[in-house]
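Researcher: We're teaching a course module on how sequence relates to structure. For the next exercise, students receive a sequence and then see the predicted structure as tokens, so they can try to spot secondary structure elements on their own. Here is the exercise chain.
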Amino acid sequence: MDLDRALRISAAGMQAQATRLRVVAENLANRDSTAETPDGEPYRRKTVTFRNRMDRAAGTAMVGVSRIGTAAGEFPVRFDPSHPAADARGYVRTPNVDSVIETMDMREAQRSYAANLSVLEVTRGMLTRTIEALRG
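Model: And here is the predicted structure for the students to work with:
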């Protein structure tokens, strides 16, 4: 594998994980965002789906973001009859964001980003040393 290809692959991985980190941050920021009316929906957790894509210039498959979707499922409820979004029984639907899951996703994305960054730095160092050797 040539060094340019390694740089492209690492950069694609970093870009995909940066998107994932942005979505996790958005989920955590909205974990308390309820609806304003009883018939409204609270914030729904977003998810990132990855895919392999062929990069013809590099001649290899690379990771990319296929789509940013929303997580299906029921919303948790809490009893708060004074809330503007409370239903007739006094229950408010809350976002389906679990801080523990988001934290684990964040850590996994950070580790993947860091691994790609390490490959990028090593590859850059190899290129620098090659250029220096050719000059010398």
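Model: If you want an answer key for the exercise: The chain has a mean pLDDT of 93. The beta strands are 46-55, 60-70, 77-79, 91-93.
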